[in-house]
């Protein structure tokens, strides 16, 4: 009996030691930081989001359970960052530290604030939370491979942010923007409790969408967001972006449709469609319990637009009866 108790106690000690060794890696950034600092606490903060990403991802080990970049309050000017091949399943959180909402200002330089490039088919688990992103052509682009459905990224979270003055309005001499948040073969993401305001192009407003789900971007949840003063279709699904749920969102002063589903049909547009295979309609999306206020004439006339044939050549037969299920909206 004593031996059993001793072995049990030893086992508990090993488990406790293992839990103690499990670690969350944290890096701080500040507008007044130093790129040569350690970033390990507020007093030694880095000044660059890109450097912070590289620094936190460089820390390896079987005991690391999470990685966090804590963004101290202030104004970050002209910063942009790229995350590549993130597929180890360990979450990466980029979030406001306590003390106020940090602002990333693109300074009219025609950049995308944050790009994720990962097409391994494994979860990437990037969270972006509590920030303001303004004066960028595009805020966030989550990029898988548009030509292979399996080459995706997934399980990312965009929560509680403000996206302000995004689009060609931030870079008038450049090309029209297509998205504030762009998903390309990016799945099972959550985009929740964000505020999109003044989303505009100078020319070709119809190209710009607050959230653009393209090329197999399926099973995403878009909920409790506010979209205010946008000039293109607010949300767009394209090319087999299926089973997305869009609910409990608020649309204010939108000039175009709230949701459009379309795809580039090679049978009709030929070489204008640049994907190797034909694009296909999206199926099984849900648009429910959303509200709209002070809409423009076009938005009032066609709040939802489903474009293109249901069964184009080269596309599989639909798995459901409806491309879009719309219910309980007040539009």
CATH class group: Mainly Beta
Radius of gyration: 22 Å
Query: How many individual domains?
Result: 1
Number of helices: 4
Oligomer: single chain
Q: Give the end-to-end Cα distance, rounded to a whole number of Å.
A: 71 Å
Strand order of the largest sheet: 1-2-5-8-12-16-19-22-25-28
Per the CATH scheme, the topology name is Pectate Lyase C-like
Please count the beta strands (DSSP E, at least 2 residues each). 28
Strand content: 35-45%
Structural class: mainly beta
Overall mean pLDDT stands at 92
Principal-axes shape call: globular
Share in helix? 10-25%
Name given to the CATH architecture:
3 Solenoid
Unreliable sequence segments? 3-21
Question: Can you put this structure into words, describing what you see?
Answer:
It is a single chain. This protein is mostly beta strands. It has one domain (29-327): Pectate Lyase C-like, CATH 2.160.20. It is built from four helices and 28 strands. It has helices at residues 2-21, 49-58, 266-269, 297-301; strands at residues 23-29, 64-71, 75-77, 81-84, 92-96, 103-105, 112-117, 126-129, 132-134, 138-143, 153-154, 157-159, 162-166, 179-184, 186-187, 190-192, 195-199, 209-214, 221-223, 226-230, 235-238, 245-247, 250-252, 259-262, 285-288, 291-293, 304-306, 324-327. The protein has a ten-stranded parallel sheet with strand order 1-2-5-8-12-16-19-22-25-28. Residues 3-21 have low confidence and may be disordered.
């Amino acid at each position: 009996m004593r031996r059993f108790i001793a072995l049990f106690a030893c086992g508990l000690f090993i488990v406790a030691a293992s839990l103690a060794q499990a670690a969350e890696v944290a890096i701080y950034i500040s507008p007044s930081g130093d790129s040569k600092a350690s970033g390990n606490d507020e007093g030694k903060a880095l000044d660059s989001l890109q450097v912070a990403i590289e620094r936190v991802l460089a820390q390896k080990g079987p005991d690391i359970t999470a990685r966090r970049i804590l963004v101290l309050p202030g104004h970050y000017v002209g910063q942009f960052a790229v995350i590549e091949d993130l597929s180890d399943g360990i979450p990466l959180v980029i979030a406001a530290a306590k003390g106020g909402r940090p602002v990333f200002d693109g300074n009219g330089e025609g950049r995308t604030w944050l790009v994720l490039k990962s097409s391994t088919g494994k979860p990437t688990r990037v969270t972006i939370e509590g920030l303001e992103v303004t004066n960028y052509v595009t805020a966030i682009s989550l990029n898988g491979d548009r030509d292979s459905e399996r080459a995706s990224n997934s399980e990312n979270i965009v929560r509680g942010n403000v996206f302000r003055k995004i689009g060609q309005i931030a870079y008038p001499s450049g090309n029209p923007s297509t998205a504030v948040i762009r998903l390309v073969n990016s799945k099972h993401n959550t985009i929740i409790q964000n505020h999109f305001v003044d989303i505009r192009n100078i020319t070709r407003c119809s190209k710009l969408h607050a959230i653009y789900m393209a090329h197999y971007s399926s099973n995403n949840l878009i909920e409790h967001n506010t979209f205010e003063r946008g000039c293109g279709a607010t949300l767009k699904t394209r090319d087999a972006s299926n089973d997305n749920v869009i609910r409990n969102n608020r649309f204010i002063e939108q000039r175009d449709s709230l949701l459009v589903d379309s795809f580039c049909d090679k049978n009709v547009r030929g070489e204008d469609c640049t994907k190797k295979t034909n694009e296909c309609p999206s199926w099984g999306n849900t648009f429910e319990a959303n509200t709209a206020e002070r809409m423009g004439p076009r938005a009032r006339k066609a709040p939802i637009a489903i474009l293109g044939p249901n069964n184009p050549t080269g596309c599989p037969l639909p798995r459901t009866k409806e491309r879009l299920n719309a219910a309980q909206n007040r539009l």
